[in-house]
UniProtKB/TrEMBL annotation:
Species annotation: Helianthus annuus
Keyword Phosphoprotein listed: no
Catalytic activity as recorded in UniProt: 2,5-diamino-6-hydroxy-4-(5-phosphoribosylamino)-pyrimidine + H2O = 2,5,6-triamino-4-hydroxypyrimidine + D-ribose 5-phosphate; 5-amino-6-(5-phospho-D-ribosylamino)uracil + H2O = 5,6-diaminouracil + D-ribose 5-phosphate
Keyword tags: Glycosidase, Hydrolase, Multifunctional enzyme, NADP, Oxidoreductase
Pathway: Cofactor biosynthesis; riboflavin biosynthesis; 5-amino-6-(D-ribitylamino)uracil from GTP: step 3/4
GO biological process, one term: carbohydrate derivative metabolic process
The name this protein goes by in its record: 5-amino-6-(5-phosphoribosylamino)uracil reductase
Record carries keyword Oxidoreductase: yes
Top-level taxon of origin: Eukaryota
GO MF assignments: 5-amino-6-(5-phosphoribosylamino)uracil reductase activity; diaminohydroxyphosphoribosylaminopyrimidine deaminase activity; hydrolase activity, hydrolyzing N-glycosyl compounds; NADP binding
Entry-linked InterPro entries: CMP_dCMP_dom, Cytidine_deaminase-like, DHFR-like_dom_sf, Eubact_RibD, NADAR, RibD_C, RibDG_C, Riboflavin_Biosynth_HTPR
EC class of the enzyme, as a word: oxidoreductase
Length: 601
């Protein structure tokens, strides 16, 4: 029902439309207060070490009567502050929170504050993303008789998109941390209009305006750590501090250097200003390591220095948010490793030229524009004379328990609890569960259009070719062979999709009704052939699997969780099937291994 109903002359004869409009109006108000709580929660940024952001607004039917935000971990909860501010107005009022309270210490401070004060309704932006806290406060409040409405669950998604997005953005670091088990990483750089981050000589001070650089100081203050590569230390002698005087949070400064061929005199070795860690290759320049230690710089050796291992290390230290301020060599390595989630590019209206002048991202091994990584949720902001372009390389995992919906989850795997089961997101092949992707290079053996068992280089090759098997158009056979010999899964996908789009007459008539069956067959073959993939799939037992593609609304979750996630569903179904019948499963694995041996990889 749309608000246009208000303007129809006959609306007085349609009481349901009035009810719906009022209903929408209430939801719009709910959404605006939740958004206000999310905006409030962001206020503590830069003051203390990054932590989950909590904000709370208490409102009566007429006004906002109290609000608060968590200043730092361990300080008075946002909910308690809001209750104290609202005083006696709490009785019968509604409390709005951007995120479900997380009673980490088990004392239910926030929840009891609401109950004792007489709050009757609580509207929650998002459930707490941490497994052991998710749903707990909501359940307790409901048990105590309060009405609890969660955006997207009890309040329909259509009217609350902005509010929900604010809730996700404000706690993106925690959401990535809990879903992907790495800290949230932002790559930031300043480049000229001709795409250079320094002159050919390596000189780079300054590309962006003073205003942009102040913005960067704020980004640093919101981060747990700032990372650069050894080369940037040699060229720039950076300080990497947020410059907010005596108060405020100081991020850890981290240098990644394999060689440790670093200068003896450097701003980063002055740890009176801020602490510094140097991450290096095991055994590198021991004498220099000693020198750094004598300066108070911590040196951490890695067996193989790479962005993923460094992120795992920082995850174990409890870090939430990392700012990468490196040059193109390290940024390319970090992007390839799949650890960068967001990009902030400051573009300055300057041209420096220079064939060998460095650019923000080095070699990624891509050869065609179709392989380019596309940012999502892109925003453009003018800062001084520069334009700041920001966007996500990976969608914020919103941990929405309705992927798939409650009923569907239970139908697929009755052992799963839609609210309490962890969610495993997979998308790119280099992700931790990247082998679940149909783009993973795992050849399978299945019949071709003549019924002869042949090798398909990936599930993607098989799936795309099947679109044209049994087509009424005799020319369709040519496409099957062309797709089967595509050089990569990406190429097979492009060919299949393009042909389907440009020559719909080539596609078999029953494709829409058969495509899930085709996919299931291919997945079953893949996960039977490769014992390690089979173990990986079974190891996810108890978790909800979600293909995190922002673009694919059928096989993936879509950008905002609106996708149908059929790939995740089929994998869960397959997992149940494998787990359900041990003997059949063993037989399938044995047959699979036999097939595997027949594949000429
Ligand atoms: N405008 C801007 O926003 C910025 C500009 N710059 C400019 O960029 C230039 C430096 O660029 P660049 O050389 O790319 O600098 P990087 O910051 O990317 O440093 C590269 C160095 O990082 C170390 N490293 C450690 N692990 C890895 C890994 N897995 N992959 C790649 N490198 C790794 C190596 O150090 P080692 O050799 O010690 O082993 C390597 O030489 C300078 O001129 C600087 O002024 C730099 C940052 C931002
Ligand atoms: N040149 C350049 C940036 N360069 C980045 O900032 C670092 C220097 O930081 P500091 O020593 O703390 O001022 C430098 O090593 C590099 O990482 N940043 C920007 O916002 N704009 C610019 O034009």
């Amino acid at each position: 029902m749309t608000t246009a109903m208000w303007f129809t002359p006959s609306f007085t004869r349609h009481p349901t439309s009035i009810i719906n409009c009022t209903y929408n109006h209430h939801h719009a108000l709910d959404a605006s207060y939740v958004k206000r709580a999310a905006d409030l929660s962001d206020k503590s940024a830069c003051f203390t070490s990054p932590h989950p952001n909590f904000g709370c607004v208490i409102a009566t039917a007429r006004n906002v009567v109290g609000e608060g935000y968590l200043y730092a971990q361990g300080t008075k909860p946002a909910e308690v502050q809001a209750v104290e501010a609202a005083g006696e107005y709490c009785r019968g009022a509604t409390a709005y929170v951007n995120m479900e309270p997380g009673d980490c210490h088990g004392d239910f401070t926030a929840v009891s504050a609401f109950i004792k004060a007489g709050i009757t309704r609580v509207v929650v932006g998002i459930r707490h993303p941490l497994q052991h806290l998710r749903g707990k406060a909501i359940q307790t409040l409901r048990t105590q008789g309060l009405q609890v409405d969660v955006l997207g669950e009890d309040i329909p998604s259509i009217s609350i998109q902005d509010a929900l997005k604010s809730c996700l953005v404000v706690n993106a670091p925690l959401l990535y941390r809990s879903a992907c088990r790495v800290p949230f990483s932002v790559l930031k750089y300043a480049m000229t209009l001709d795409g250079k981050i320094a002159a050919t000589s390596g000189h780079s001070t300054w590309i962006s305006s003073t205003k942009s650089r102040s913005h960067v100081f704020e980004l640093r203050g919101r981060s747990d750590a700032v990372i650069v590569g050894g080369s940037t230390v040699r060229k720039d002698n950076p300080r990497l501090t947020p410059r907010h005087g005596s108060g405020g949070h100081l991020p850890m400064r981290i240098v990644m250097s394999q060689t440790l061929d670093l200068p003896e005199v450097a701003n980063l070795w002055d740890v009176r200003e801020a602490p510094t860690i140097v991450a290096t290759q095991r055994g590198a320049r021991r004498s220099f390591q000693k020198f750094l230690a004598s300066k108070g710089v911590e040196v951490v050796e890695f067996d193989s220095l790479n962005p993923k291992d460094v992120m795992d290390y920082l995850y174990d230290l409890g870090y939430l948010s990392i700012l990468w301020e490196c040059g193109g060599a390290l940024s390319a390595s970090a992007i390839s490793a799949g650890v960068i989630h967001k990009v902030h590019a400051f573009v300055a209206p300057k041209i420096i030229g220079g064939k060998n002048a460095p650019s923000p991202v080095g070699e990624l091994g891509m050869v065609e524009m179709t392989q380019a990584l596309e940012l999502i949720d892109v925003s453009y902001e003018q800062i001084g004379s520069d334009v700041l372009i920001s966007g996500y390389l990976q969608p914020i995992p919103d941990m929405t328990p309705v992927i798939p919906s409650v009923d569907e989850t239970l139908a697929i795997d009755p052992s799963l609890s839609p609210y309490d089961s962890p969610i495993i997101f997979f998308y790119k092949t280099w992700d931790p569960y990247g082998s679940f992707s149909n783009f993973s290079s795992h050849p399978i053996r299945l019949p071709d259009e003549n019924g002869d068992c042949v090798t398909w280089s990936s599930v993607q090759h098989y799936y795309q070719a099947q679109k044209f098997v049994g087509s009424c158009n005799p020319n369709a056979r040519n496409y099957i062979e062309v797709i089967r010999s595509a050089k990569s899964p990406e190429e097979a996908a492009q060919m299949g999709r393009r042909t389907q789009r440009e020559h719909p007459d080539m596609v078999r008539a029953d494709w829409e009704s058969m495509k899930r069956e085709v996919m299931y067959k291919a997945l079953k073959c893949k996960f039977s052939i490769y014992p390690h993939l089979n173990s990986m799939l079974l190891s996810t037992s108890g978790s909800i699997l979600v293909e995190a593609s922002p673009h694919d609304l059928f096989w993936g979750r879509g950008r905002d969780g609106e996708g149908l996630n059929y790939l995740g569903r089929l994998l869960m179904k397959l997992r149940s099937e494998f787990l359900g019948d041990d003997d059949t499963h063993k037989l399938e694995i044995l047959q699979g291994i036999e097939n595997f041996n027949n594949i000429n990889i």
